Amino acid sequence: MSDKTFIISGMSCGGCVNGLTRVLTTVPGIEPLKIEVGKAQLRIDDARVSSQTVKDAVARAGFAVTGEV
Length: 69
Fold this sequence. Notes:
By secondary structure, the protein is α+β, with helices and mostly antiparallel strands. The chain contains two helices and four strands.
């Protein structure tokens, strides 16, 4: 398990935060720690989840990962 922070583009409000949180909680191996406009801090099971998995989940919510801190 590792904690990672991703930069997310396209978010502008609390509704965006809620939508992204809902999607991320459905992905096995991802535990949202702190989601805010423009950022998502996640606990990731490295054995089950790749960066591409995170990017795909974020895209399903209507946003894009533009970087990792």
